Amino acid sequence: MMISGTILGIGNDLIDIRRVEKSLERFGKRFIDRIFTDVEQAKSERRAGSAAKNNARASTYAKRFAAKEACSKALGTGFRDGVFWRDMGVVNLPSGQPTMRLTGGALARLEAITPPGMRARIHVTLTDEYPMAEAFVVISAEPIEPASIQSEMPTKTATPE
């Protein structure tokens, strides 16, 4: 009998990109370092020189900000119980598909909500249409294949492999 995946949590967030633009102008590096991982910063800063009509750098940061909010909601905690901004970071799979890499309290919460014998997966979609950016996160759990259990130590991380 095939066991299907289970949804562990769903979260979404909508943010006004102009709010992020103002935070970048007012607080600069202090805001960036407090909220975003090194990987997120590198991706967003590469967009700084973009010829896009609106601020592509701020849009990129805004989508990642929304993803963190959405992920914290999907974890069922928000930003409390040891879950912090930099515990969650948007990364891309080799295919380009976005997902989240969790550490610290966010990873601990993910492990706590993932049933035994299951592996968590974090599905992320990001979009923006100036002046708004949105992220939607679904955390699911899929059975670990019996062959995988024997050949490798099971983990519950949701990082790209």
UniProtKB/TrEMBL annotation:
Q: Which UniProt keywords apply?
A: Cytoplasm, Fatty acid biosynthesis, Fatty acid metabolism, Lipid biosynthesis, Lipid metabolism, Magnesium, Metal-binding, Transferase
On the tree of life, the source organism's domain of life is Bacteria
Q: What class of enzyme is it?
A: transferase
Task: Provide the protein's localization.
Answer: Cytoplasm
GO BP: fatty acid biosynthetic process
UniProt-listed HAMAP family: AcpS (MF_00101)
Q: This protein is called what?
A: Holo-[acyl-carrier-protein] synthase
Native source species: Azospirillum lipoferum
Starting at the broadest rank, the lineage of the source organism is: Bacteria, Pseudomonadati, Pseudomonadota, Alphaproteobacteria, Rhodospirillales
